[in-house]
Amino acid sequence: MVFGGGNLWRQPIGFLVFLISSLAECERLPFDLPEAEEELVAGYQTEYSGIKYALFYLASYLNLLVSSLFVTVLYLGGWNFSIPYIPIPELFRINQMAGIFGMTIDIFITLAKAYLFLFISITTRWTLPRMRIDQLLNLGWKFLLPISLGNLLLTTSSQLVSL
């Protein structure tokens, strides 16, 4: 097991690009262009009330939870405990039910890491100002795409050199 989880230490540039892209895909506040277009109370959701409005927000937060789970599994090691050399069943002195208890702890660890990124996404909604469409396009095409392609080139060349 790698200290600190999975690919976060191997691919920090990919992690930042993926995190910014997942925020943009979930239409969180720096990138919430569909809601900001009309500058109304809820943008395109103004016509909905009651359960339809609640289902829109539920779908939005489920999308955010799924993207947080993707970040957790791809970059934080998923269900692996981030602190090495601590066997959890021996810590609680449980040896008979170690399989079920271990699986429960693994699910809890995954959800805790996902909720950490859910909290980070909600916090960025509170702190960052809204971007205009031209700023979002400049960020995507002139900043994120060249950085991600450079990261791909760097990763590929380092893998080829290690062969």
TrEMBL record:
Main location: membrane
Top-level division of the source organism's lineage: Eukaryota
Transmembrane segments annotated in the record for this chain: 54-77, 97-122, 143-161
InterPro entries according to UniProt: NADH_UbQ_OxRdtase_su1/FPO, NADH_UbQ_OxRdtase_su1_CS
The keyword Metal-binding belongs to this UniProt entry's keyword annotation: no
NAD listed as a keyword: yes
Compartmental location: Cell membrane; Membrane
Membrane topology according to the record: Multi-pass membrane protein
Residues annotated as signal peptide: 1-26
Keywords for this protein: Membrane, NAD, Signal, Transmembrane, Transmembrane helix
GO biological-process terms attached to the record: aerobic respiration
GO cellular component: plasma membrane
GO terms assigned for molecular function: NADH dehydrogenase activity
Family named by the database record: Belongs to the complex I subunit 1 family.
Record's protein name: NADH-plastoquinone oxidoreductase subunit 1
Organism: Rhynchospora pubera
